[in-house]
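Researcher: Next sequence.
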Amino acid sequence: MSLSVVVPTLNARDELADCLDALAEHAPDAEVIVANGPSADGTTGMVQERTDVDVLVEIADRSVNCARNAGLDHATGETVAFVSHTLSVGDTWREAVTDGLVDSHAVTGPTRTQLRAGVETERKESRTIAGRAVTYFNPGNAAFRREVLTELDGFDEYLEIGGARDAAHRLARGDFAVRWDDRMHVREELGTDGGRETGLGPKYRSLAYRLGKNYGPRPTVFRRLLGHAGRDAAEGLRHVARGDNKPSAWLGAGRTVSLSLAVGLKDGLAARRGDGSQRNPQGQSARDDRAVSVYDWR
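Model: Next structure:
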C-alpha cells in the first residue's frame, strides 16, 4: 500500500528539518509533501535543497487545516499520513501504519515528549457523546485510507484549532474504525515541563462549533459546553481568591467565553443545516485556490 506523508509547517525550519530527516530514515518509500504556510524563516529554501521531499506546496493561509487539505490535494498514495513539523517518527512507525490499516480505517499513536523530568507519553483518548463512541487521534501523527479522507472531505477550514477532533467526530459518525498503536510513536523535544496554552476565544468557539455541527442542539451538547465553561470559571475564581488574577480579568474572560460559545454554536448549527451529509462545508472540496505555488519533483 503506497504511502503519502503530508507535513504542514509554518516558521519552523529547524524542527521541520529534523522531521524530514526522520521520515527519510524510517519511511524512505513514502511520498513526502510539505505544505508551507507563509513562513519567513527560510523554510522554502531549505526544502528546495533537499532530495527527500517530493512536493512543496506554498500557501498564503496560516491555518493548519488549510495546510492539511493543501497537502492532501497533491498526495497520490493509497494511504495518507499527517505528521506535525515538530515531531520525528520512530523506527517502528512505518510498520505500524501498514499493519494498522489492514483492518482499520485510520491509525494513530502517541507523542513521546522529552521533558526535563523525563519522557511524557500520550494515551488513547475516547469519549461517548450522544450515544456515539468517539476515538480521538493524535493530530500530529495519524494515517488514513484515502477513501476515508475522501468521505470526510478532508479537514474543516473554519476551525482555527480542533480540526483533528472535529474529524474524529465525523469518523465516528461514519462508523470508521480508528486504531491506536503504541508502535506508531513520534518524538517531540521540548526541553521544559509544561504544555501549550490556547486562548479562551478560539477554544470555546471551536468546541461549540464542533459539537453543534456534528450533534445538533441536543441536551448533551449544552451540558458539555456548560460543563467545560463551568470548570474553567471555577479555576479562574481560585486564581482570583489566591490573588493571582483580578476580578475584572475573570469577568472579561467570562464575556469572551460566552460570546465564543454563542458564535461557535450558531456557526456549527448553520454548517449542519447547510451540509446534511458530510457536515464539512469548508472542507477539501470547498476550494481549489489554496496553493500560491507548487514545486513538484516527482
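Model: Residues 191-196 have pLDDT under 50 and may be disordered. Residues 134 and 172 are 5 Å apart (CA to CA).
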